[in-house]
Fold each of these.
Amino acid sequence: MKYDQVVSAFDPVLGLEVHVELGTKSKMFCGCATLFGAEPNTQVCPVCLGLPGSLPVVNRKAIEYTIAIGLALNCSIAPYSRFARKNYFYPDMPKNFQTSQYDEPICKNGYLDLEVETEDGIKEFRVDIERVHMEEDTGKSLHVGGATGRIHGADYSLLDYNRAGIPLVEIVTKTIEGTGKYAPLVAKAYVKELRDILRSLGVSDVKMEQGSLRCDANVSLRPMGEKKLGTRSETKNVNSLRSVERAVRAEMIRHAGILETGGKVKQETRHFHENTGETTAGRSKEQAEDYRYFQEPDLIPIAPADSWIDEIRKNLPERPSERRKRLQSAWSVPDKEMAAMVNADVLDLVAETVELGADPTKARGWWLGEIARIANENEKWAGELPISPVNVKELIDLINAGELTDKLARQVVEGVINGEGSPKEVVAQRGFKVVSDDTALMEAIERAITTQPDVADKVRNGHIPAAGALIGAVMKDTKGQADAAKVRSLLLKHLGQSE
Amino acid sequence: MIRKSANEMAASLASGEVTSVELTKAHFARIEEVDVKVRAFLHLDTEGALASASVIDERRKKGEELPPLAGVPLALKDVLVQKNVPTTCGSKILQGWRPPYDATVVKNLKKNGVVILGKTNMDEFAMGSSTENSAFHPTHNPWDLTRIPGGSGGGSSAAISSFEAPLAIGTDTGGSIRQPAAVTGTVGVKPTYGGVSRYGLVAFSSSLDQAGPCARTVLDAALLHEAIAGHDEKDSTSIDAPVPKVVEAARRGDVKGVRIGVIKELQGEGYQAGVLERFQESLDILSGLGAEIVEVSCPSFDYALPAYYLIAPSECSSNLARFDAMRFGLRVGEGSAEEVMNATREAGFGREVKRRIILGTYALSSGYYDAYYGSAQKVRTLIKNDFEKAFLSADVLVSPTAPTTAFKIGEKSDDPLAMYLNDIATIPVNLAGICAISIPSGLAKEDSLPAGFQVMAPAMADDRLYNVGAALERELLAKWSKPLLDFAPELA
């Protein structure tokens, strides 16, 4: 079924669960470090290994972060909430229960307003938030042998408990209805806006590729006009913003295909595959698992003082949506350009470059231009490249000082990204030098006129556009190290013409 | 020397009459001599104990000022982790495990210079009232080797009543310190919940477990209590308040004007006549000392036992999930992780532990939660309310510690319900999180075996236990003209 047909016959309903690893220095219930990528099992202790006798103690910072998230999402903060144990056996879960929250989450009933860019212009949607609660992450299993890297068919498994006990926050939406054909875009916009908020709060590094922000997408379809919800699937392994949109779209198409032929959608977990853009069945959820939740007797209830909540509220940063509006007007950026920056996710990078003193238009030009081009080529995000706002500011300064031409500057960007050092270092090492010596330039101009006398005559006769060929020759002669504008003005003057 | 109280041993150490190494060796000699019969210990840390004893002796020789119990030996219940010393909880599933850390109680003992002789036997994961559920061997009551020493801390109570150690640490989830104390003629205290850190105490039922002192005298128990108690930031349920002045109270022993409430529901049917007789005698003594005796009623106590046997198994079903062969302890079987987990748990846990895991798993299941775990939590609140009300008219409450004296080994092994009933008088205290002491009240007429007198006090009023206990102990000692344990048969 084509997507257009899907959305004309069915009404999609979404539910999004986002897990965020908090960026606290220590774990949720012990003092272990939380650095990403450390040697396996080097950031562990009796508590996060679940050794007999050990007990959890709540990380105050994690609670503070969670309250901040709740406030930023317009939630009410529970004056009294509790931890609960979610009981199930899994080798990478040390205690064979996860300390989580069940019927008493710390934040409830919020919302997030979205501006979604669509083919029909910008549309506004409000996503209601059901709850924000705290829990601990599990360790990681590495299944060795077998074809799939999954547990089935593996020869053996290795366990790394470094991640076990890292604080997680789960943000659950209420059902998202009425998005129609925009459902995949709304899903993506929601995760993106949420990510920007979390980043602005400084509570997480929100890297989807590293798993510090994970999204599970619940999708169901119902026939147009029907009130009753259809059976949902829950898609996991959605590891980028693009994947959020693709996964929702793929599930909508899959569900529609089943429903159209009179079939029944199975309530199950699906895995999204980035390479094919499709989902495959995971474990079936038709029989609900019984997690035997009960309140965690090793922890006392969380009862944040009003004064503490007020203090957190007072320190909340500017909302990303408000900040965007402010920056757009301060920089006088047209809507389309603003959207381009937001889409390429370079707004923060441009803002940092501007804060360092660079001209907003020039800063934007570099981050959206040459740097974005190289990022695209490498299938990366500009922020992942080894070039910083400081580098870009330096680059712009060099151009302003006449020490670099635009053409040379592009090569410098390439050099910085290749790890050759700062822009100044790249300029020095590659021996770039703008030829600004008039005598040298005049010699090159003379040579160009000698080799292309006809062209020179045309210019002399007032056909200015013909000058391009001569300027090109001069630039080639000077190996691109001349300032094209200067060459142009010298050449025209020499041939008795004016601009 | 080994028959002295810990306080007297401490005095002998301080005066230089004996060294800690000599004292420690004397206890190891006693253990060598009688533990083949008593079987109180699961593991002896001879090397470690002598090393720490000699450090204390060195420090004393240098003229350092040492804590009161420095150099005095102690037996540790095998449910508390001690760094690099085997900790089994009386279970095969932990066989071979050497913990990489010290429990806070152990840390406090070491800080106080107490010499840890070894780990004592217990019912597996503290589940039982007789120590017969140990995966290794039963422990025998020094008063009669064919009888149980109580449980789950039977190893600790047997060790001190057989003079293998002057002090021991126990843990009390439903009576596991007090009932063994009662049936061995020793003193045992369950401190207020949160009074002693649970960090490093292998959890059976987190909301009920509490470590506490076992000793031969009230003052010894108080000295040990003060050494191990206090706030611990590693235990979120630990109370951040000063430790009640228990040693001072144990030295005072003055009950004049103290209102003592006798709990109507904790006597009568099911209680052995000789036990009740000793209980009444103690009451009369306290009354004679100027205490005011009142009767109080705690009607919800009738539901304490069923509530306990839902809450404790529920928590244990979750607490014991971590014994899965993945990171420590026993590993049985081959194949997938799930197969290894299943095979290990099947082989590693004993019958009573499995019974309680199954019971708790069931009680927490969706659809049953409200009827079982939920209702039990409500009963718990009612019991707390009963206590609160009773403490309006009494400063302390009293009852026999256990309904009977020590029963025969094997007598109740096939009847879990009969076994559970032995804790009828001790369980309400755990459910309410308050504190209680058991002190010897003498020998029951019909079997010449020790009976226990229980005193209960509100949370963080542990000092009251010691005050009343010391007064009663002093009068009984005068009446018997020698310590009760001197009436026990000689083992050697």
Amino acid sequence: MELLVSILVLGATNALLAAGIVIVYKASRIVNFAHGELAIVGAYVFYSAGLITQGQSLLLTIAATAAISALFGVAIYAALMRRLVGQPTFVAAMVTIGLAIVLKAAIVVFWHSKSVGINLTRQTLYTFPGGGRLTLVDVITVSCCIAFFAALFAFFNHTRLGRQFRGAAENPLLASQRQVNVNLILALAWGAAVFSASLAGVLFGSRSMLSPQSTIIGLSGLTAALVGGLDSLRGAVIGGLLVAAATYLTARLIDPALSEAVPFAILLIVMTWRPWGIFGTPEELNRV
Amino acid sequence: MMKSIAARLGLAAFAVGLATAPLQAQEYKIGYITDLSGPLAGSYTPTWQGFELYMKALNERGGVNGRKIKISLDDDGLRADRAVAAAKKQVERDDVLGIFGLSLSSTIGPVLGEMRKAGVPVASTFSAILDALPPAKPMYYSTGVAFEVAGEAIGVLSQRIAPKGKIVGVTFDSVGGRAALRHNKLMAEKLGYTWDEIVFPVRTADFTPFAQSAAALKPDIVVGHYGAEQNLGYVTALRAAGYAGPYVIAAYGASEATVKQAAQQSGSGANLYIVSRFAPVTDNVPGTKSIKDAAAKYGLADLNSMHVTGWTLGAFAEEALKKCGADCTRELLDKALQTIKIDTQGLTGGAIEMKPDDHYGTSFWRLYRWDTDKLTAVGDWQSQGALTFPTQ
Amino acid sequence: MAAGSPYLRVTYAETNRILPEPYQRVLVVAIAVAVLVLPMVSNAYVIYLLNLTFLAVIGAVGLNLLTGYCGQVSLGHASFLAIGAFVTAILSNRYGAPVWLALPAACLVGAMVGFVVGLPALRFRGIYLAITTLAMHYAIIFVLTTYQANFGSSATAGISVPAPALGGYEINSGRAWYYALLLVSAGVVVFSLNVSRGYIGRAWVAIRDRDIAAASVGINVARFKLLAFVCSATLAALAGSLGAYFTGVVTVEAYTLELAIIYLAMIIVGGMGSVAGAVLGAVFMTLLPFGIERLFEALPHAWRLGTTSYGLQEAVTGVAIIFFLLFEPKGLIEIYRRTAEYFERWPFRYRELQPAERR
């Protein structure tokens, strides 16, 4: 029972990270390799904001971090990605790799590589018979993930801007001829992606700890997105849960030291059998 | 008549003194290389700060043998090629007598290879490789933590927590971690404990499954052999998995700051222990008073046992240079290092003493328990001489 | 005389020359002389940096064959380096093999692994290929980590490699290494130029530009893609093997994903699809961190921001990648070409309709 809960919680974190990668890919066909670093830097910003408000106003800290993350996402688009229109997507991916290096160095410069923990809440909700605890943070993680995905589904399917988004992703030139503000769409996409990254990072930091090395969670998110399909939000959820389940089960039942290789094993299997992911659209393979 | 002769003699002596003074105002040049920007910067930066603090205070007092000490600082980012490049630069351009500090064992090996060729002695703290233990290989000394020795020390000190039962050792998949675990296991089994172990990947960010595995084994003591930051994550996960028993942090870079954070993050500081070679700054010994005074003077805050580690290395360097003498060269420094003994003023359990065939000496380890807001010692210092079990 | 403009070349021999213009020949001779004389006038630190640069050049030129010419994005370069290093270390440490046996054996194993890693390339392109090579990288590193953890002891924290000896002469001084590495990297550059100017190089470029079109003109795409992977992996294994001898100790921690990205950065910054670009990029990316370090040392003490300057050095690699991709996507070699073209044409200002092929 405890195992199931842990898988759900980790799966939710992976799904959130994967969602950010999927949003950016859906909008612009760019794979964002900096997503893990964005998540951890966002969490560090939350930590510092918490220090500034001295832990008094949680709402203010959340609002500040959300605003900073979204604005940073828009800034990435405006300053970097916009200039790469027309170049092959490999170039944009390399730019995100460069961004990842810069962000990791930023943690060293601004936070002196200190390991920190985020203290959202300490409340335990329920204790399992085996001794494990279900904490409020676990519940918050899963509910945030559900809420975020619900919001995304509602946005894409039921709002005008959401439909325009899908149109712009499908064929930017045609969409811009029909008065869809493609720049706005892409800026929104990046803002939402970085916001979701920070959210995932903060939730992760509350359950575990933050250090420059924690950026490795980006890799699980990327694997989850690839397994589920780079342009499918449904796939992000399924992929996230799948990767979490495989990692945990390997760590608990087979051999802890092997659990690092599991996401890559899954990746190789999926790449061989169904390269565009479980829910991805098949033509993606030849598009790049 | 006599007065003017005396005056002239005095003037002559003064002139001679002036002429030789510039020679004596030369500085001792030493190098310090460590990880200031990489994965372990959180632990290594305070160690450097402690060393720097000692040297600042020393220079204020007039230095050693009338000469001040000049340190060339370089960052290696925990990469062996950068460590070697920095070492070569310090040897060629900065003309250093010896190199201090260093970082993880994977960077020490390559640096040593080059420095032996150049004839420059190396003294590391924080990590120690087996070259320092008897029979000692040349040109390398250490006041730091050797994994095998730490493992055995923790095995012995576990008796103060629980005299018998099951110990679960946890480490990450590295050469040092596995070595520490091996010696911890041998010592624990010799003392009558049952042993189990969990090894997780180096790059783990989420410790939940490994903590749950440990808790499922129903141990009486859990020992963690890894760096400071992993303890933070692991303790949180361990407590969430339902294990409320004793958890011992093996101090490879962990300090009272780590324990405090772990206590905060996991929600409870109960049953949290640390085994460290150097005392936390809250211990009331002459050494910590010196550090606190110097820190207050030069504006360094948030002291912890990592600063103590660097400070002790500073004292070590001072003693070596003092013994080396006014005309110190690299060979003389190496010779001096082979027989020095420093009084650590309570910062560790006893003197740090080097011998020609033992460049590590007897090390002292103490078990501390976290009590609400500081570490209290559990019993006295435990001395570890030569290794009880042979290395692989 | 045909000097001065590509339009005035009247024989095939002139068109096919590697260095058609006199000023290029003078430049190359000048560089060669400088490189040969340099160790006599520098100290051991500079020689060490140059040795590191030569090792990087070998690796970068290898990666350029794969990613620059053939267009196959590969994030697994560090794992090939690691394989070269480990095979060398195991053979010379465990079995006492001499360098003339261990080095070729490392290259052979590298070639075999390159073949295996190249197989997914037949199916994927672009980002998916990058991801697959990333997965392969982690798989290989995982195997090597397990090996090192079970073999090495804390004393060496890795596998130690004795200095290479050729015919009784041991290479263990900076100068000796300098000339040895100079020889090997010059050989690698010549090999790369040769391959790129021949049928294989042209087939690779065709595959890079449009592999479906290449297949339609009769190029065996699968064969050439695999060949590219094999060549690149062999050169990387060579670089890794030499690096192992040079450093004296092999640890798997040195071969991270960041290293693969640095090599990619080298060919991007230098200019993809150009051997001279790969060399320039290797020199630039290797010496840049040390240059920044020197810059910080020159600042007055108060400006050095304590230890945060080291964090900034880390950022420099990322900044360089972003900067070059945004503003100079064709790399450093493009700057050279623009300058050279400007002076070639001076005082005229026209630009060619069909730029002459440059290497």
